[in-house]
Design goal:
Length: 205
């Protein structure tokens, strides 16, 4: 099911929002149910996909600095923090979504996060922070990935940085930088999700 275009265009009005919930899969907040009010059609990355993703990330998530760039409900970043990531920056243009993530963090008594109500490119262009894990789960069919990938490539990400990318199954993955390597890729229903790592230049030879 495609996601609503929460990160572009005018802000969503209260009348088009709907109630939803997500469940933390593992870690210190395992099985905690978190309610949220999202734009019509918005839903977090499914339990099944998150469970697989964080199984992939299990060796590296503890102590990682994370970026949830199209945060929406905050499902990916909150799951990372539950599994003892050191810090997560949440970024989304929807102010209501950002406020709800702040409230979730307060309810969970988690100080290891910052929520930014900004467009993805605006945040990246001003950020000098380096990350171990970056989550890219933009609204489907809006061509948001290509410019973000290009901007991240210009940031010269450190080797071993991991990037998660989720797209609709009928969307083409934009061209990746030469030193980005797809390590894992799976399809679940109408979603394709991948875990990518930045490799050292020497390993490209």
């Amino acid at each position: 099911m495609p996601k609503a275009p929460r990160n572009s265009g005018p802000q969503t009005t209260t009348s088009t929002r709907q109630q939803g919930s997500l469940r933390i899969i593992g870690g210190q907040w395992r099985s905690r149910k978190l309610d949220f009010e999202g734009a019509a059609g918005l839903r977090p990355t499914s339990d099944r996909i998150r469970e697989t993703l964080f199984n992939w990330l299990n060796p590296t998530i503890h102590g990682a600095r994370c970026l949830d760039l199209f945060a929406g409900s905050g499902a990916l970043g909150l799951e990372a923090l539950s599994r003892y990531a050191a810090h997560c920056d949440f970024v989304d243009t929807d102010r209501n979504s950002c406020q709800q993530i702040r409230q979730q963090l307060e309810n969970l008594r988690c100080p290891h996060a910052t929520v930014h109500s900004k467009e993805a490119l605006a945040f990246l262009n001003k950020s000098a922070q380096s990350y171990n894990i970056i989550f890219l789960d933009p609204p489907f069919h809006l061509d948001l990935l290509a410019p973000v990938i290009g901007t991240l490539a210009n940031h010269a990400l450190k080797p071993h940085t991991q990037i998660y990318i989720e797209t609709a199954s009928d969307e083409a993955l934009p061209a990746l930088p030469a030193n980005w390597q797809i390590d894992k890729e799976k399809k679940a229903g109408q979603v394709v999700y991948r875990l990518i790592s930045v490799v050292e230049e020497a390993s490209l030879a």
